[in-house]
Amino acid sequence: MTWVESKIARRDVWADGLISLTVELAVPQFTPGQYLNVGLDLAGARVKRSYSLASGAGEPAQFYLSLVPGGALTPALFERDVGDKLWVDDRPLGFFTLQYVPEAQHLWLLATGTGLGPFVSMLKGKDIWQRFSRIVLAHGVRQTAHLGYADLLAGLAREHPEQFAYVPAITREAPPPWALEGRLPQLIQSGALEARARLPLVPEGSHVLLCGNPNMLSEVQAVLAERGLVKHRPRKPGHISVESYW
Ligand SMILES: Cc1cc2nc3c(=O)[nH]c(=O)nc-3n(C[C@H](O)[C@H](O)[C@H](O)COP(=O)(O)OP(=O)(O)OC[C@H]3O[C@@H](n4cnc5c(N)ncnc54)[C@H](O)[C@@H]3O)c2cc1C
Ligand SMILES: NC(=O)c1ccc[n+]([C@@H]2O[C@H](COP(=O)([O-])OP(=O)(O)OC[C@H]3O[C@@H](n4cnc5c(N)ncnc54)[C@H](OP(=O)(O)O)[C@@H]3O)[C@@H](O)[C@H]2O)c1
Fold first, then answer.
1. How many whole angstroms separate alpha carbon 7 and alpha carbon 166?
2. Does the domain at residues 98-244 carry the CATH identifier 3.40.50.720?
3. 44, 179, 184, 229 — which has fewest CB within 10 A?
């Protein structure tokens, strides 16, 4: 582990309690989907947490963060501004990457909240566009204002209309016409997600990546199990890979 002191270069506010922090450090080699440990020295001890990289290769490291009230790190992290320092362990970690996704034609990326971050990083790379004929990104959030990176993602959908579908889903207010209403497991069960993506979610040719709220991860896996999609393991290939944020 090598802790590097780095300065905050940008602080983008998406909504109250929802930001992206970009630090000066460009991580020399990482695979989209990996995370770094970030730390602050608070009351004499280094408090560290893991954060997925939302940046692309060669870019300064960017993290997509939500404020967890009462949390040990995020309340202090949210007080930091441009020019402030934080600690970054510059060794990328984790296996939630396309490298570990078996052969498939269709890739389903399902995120809640800041679980979107690794998918933003993957979509900024070349590999994903070369490997999959169809990519669906569904992002579940409480309110429309919590749809971070929406302009980037809607832009990608316009650029790749046949290959990429961006499907936001709102749970705590009426959604705009371009988003769905409800939680992801129910939207899969009802067929609404597939209808909006114009793609069936079936075991043949599909791989599903899930990231964010652990309850979403387990509920989506239960719904997909009814359709015959099972967790992917190195020694027992399947259709689902997960990254749980807590
Ligand atoms: C591999 C990995 C990658 C991660 N990447 C990101 C990321 O890119 N962006 C991001 O915002 N978070 C990410 N997290 C979560 C992050 O590491 C922290 O857990 C989170 O920021 C809360 O830290 P805290 O110290 O403020 O709260 P803590 O004191 O650690 O948490 C208090 C409690 O809040 C709950 N909790 C933790 N995280 C959340 C959350 N996001 N929403 C609701 N409840 C929560 C847990 O039950 C926890 O016990 C990731 C976690 C892992 C394991
Ligand atoms: N994101 C923000 O802008 C923001 C701002 C300030 C503070 N925070 C804090 O950050 C923490 C995380 O909040 P968050 O909104 O980012 O994440 P979250 O609570 O995980 O909610 C994100 C989305 O996941 C959905 N969800 C929750 N459980 C689910 C399940 N079992 N299956 C499927 N979907 C499920 C939520 O639906 P429901 O609405 O139905 O629960 C919501 O649409 C909280 O402590 C919050 O107070 C977040």
1. 33
2. no
3. 44
